[in-house]
Write a structure and sequence with these properties.
single chain, alpha+beta, Rossmann fold, six-stranded antiparallel beta sheet, 21% helix, globular, disordered N terminus, SGNH_hydro_sf, hydrolase activity
């Protein structure tokens, strides 16, 4: 690739340009951008991987209106690392027309608020190139200017976006596991959203907001997790930040390490589904994330189980060779950027999704392929390290099933206790050599 040289007034300006380009879409810096004036750097601290909005004929509802007009969306995100300043990332990745955001604010969220309330005195306006509004081209992302708002690690922030024009929603993250609100008018500056608003509605989907970065000390690093609904937290308790990447973030925060969750419910390694296949989104969701030094890969169960179900009635099942080739390609691309790759074994799923249109998700032949994949993950040596989530969650008496104490009840997705067990199964020194595995002590209880 030909190097583009642009004369800039200062090293600090060069770093800021690098940051904007890296967060926006095209990674032109190695892993993170530093501020030459302060010695500090920016690191990704939260993520919601973008997905294309599907039509009304799909199996699941979107939990969003088809379009927003003269409305404010307020979303809550629990960051992993904190900092003195932050930036937000908005996405029009799957839009077919320019998307105009009229205003945006960020604030510290008042926990346990039922009305989207934020902490008094914490509201800050967000600007984009010095302007309060921004037009995001089709297929693009946009990074805000830095916002001076000190936020501690593992705290919740509220991001409010006002959409003054009729705006079709084409890009979202379906399963946010967190309540957000849509209200009429410009309420970006409201410390508490108007409860009496007749158009007020709540949603667990995330439109437009896809990332948050914080300015930290120069040693900050990030771990990305690319996965499916198990990583996305499909059965984790709503509004409790109890997905396994959340628990992992609690272990890593004392070490100055962020966790960015690139899980998408329905995601697959080789094929598109409720989002792009892993190899298609690897650059955007992992390699371009600021500060990423390691990635955990927990993908493949939907590749194995979707064929023959209502999701992919006539699809051919993958072969072991095709799945391992996909893993090897993902590893090669990450290694080319100096990123360490940990493979996670696929968790048990016998009896999955009973009483649903996907009751045929599990079949003995599919489980046999899962066992072959897990054997390859454990023994091929392709990954830099292995996390054995299968061993952590399975019932010793019935190893094809999740142990009852870890099961959410659908026999596919772990409940909160299962997510905690998964986070505890990650050896920190394998994740990032030099970290102490016992570092943070006991994990905190889910809120």
């Amino acid at each position: 690739m030909k190097r583009l040289t642009v004369p800039l007034a200062s090293a600090g300006a060069a770093a800021m340009l690098a940051l904007t380009l890296t967060l926006g879409a095209v990674p032109i810096t190695p892993a993170r951008a530093a501020d030459a004036a302060t010695g500090n750097g920016w690191v990704a601290t939260w993520q919601a991987s973008p997905q294309p909005v599907w039509g009304t004929d799909f199996l699941f509802p979107t939990h969003l209106p088809a379009a927003l007009h003269a409305q404010t969306v307020r979303q809550v995100a629990r960051i992993s690392l904190g900092g003195e300043r932050l930036r937000i990332v908005l996405s029009n990745a799957y839009g077919k027309q320019p998307l105009f955001v009229g205003k945006a604010t960020v604030a510290r969220f008042r926990e346990a608020s039922a009305a989207g309330a934020v902490t008094d005195g914490s509201l800050r306006a967000v600007s984009f190139g010095g302007q309060e509004g921004v037009t995001i081209p089709p297929g693009a992302s946009w990074v805000s200017d830095p916002v001076a708002l000190p936020v501690p690690a593992l705290s919740q922030v509220a991001v409010s976006l006002y959409l003054p024009q009729a705006t079709p929603i084409s890009t979202f993250h379906w399963d946010g596991r967190q309540t957000g609100w849509i209200v009429s008018g410009d309420q970006t500056q409201a410390t508490s959203l108007q409860i009496a608003d007749p158009d007020r509605q709540s949603t667990t989907a995330r439109p437009l907001l896809t990332g948050i970065a914080v300015e930290t000390g120069p040693a900050a690093r990030a771990v990305a997790v690319i996965g499916d609904s198990i990583t996305d937290g499909a059965a984790a308790t709503l509004n409790k930040d109890s997905r396994w990447p959340d628990f992992l973030a609690a272990r890593l925060a004392p070490h100055g390490v962020a966790v960015v969750n690139a899980g998408i419910s329905g995601a697959r390694l080789l094929s598109d589904g409720m989002g792009a296949n892993a190899l298609a989104r690897l650059e955007r969701d992992v390699l371009a994330q600021l500060g990423v030094r390691s990635v955990i890969v927990l993908l493949g169960i939907n590749d194995i189980a979707w064929p023959g179900t209502a999701f992919a009635k006539h699809a051919e099942p993958p072969t072991l060779a095709s799945l391992t080739a996909g893993y090897r390609q993902l590893i090669a691309q990450a290694h080319s950027r100096g990123i360490r790759v940990l493979g996670a074994t696929l968790t048990p799923f016998e009896g999955a999704l009973p009483g649903t249109p996907l009751a045929d998700y599990y079949q003995p032949g599919k489980d046999a392929l899962r066992a072959q994949v897990n054997d390859w993950i454990r023994h091929s040596g392709a990954f830099d390290a292995v996390i054995d989530f299968d061993a952590a969650l399975r019932d010793p008496a019935k190893p094809a099933r999740i142990a009852s104490r870890f099961d959410s009840g659908d026999h596919l997705h772990p409940g909160d206790a299962g997510h905690r067990a998964m986070a505890e199964a990650v050896a920190l020194d394998a994740l990032l050599p030099g970290l102490e595995s016992k570092a943070a002590g006991a994990l905190p209880q889910a809120r």
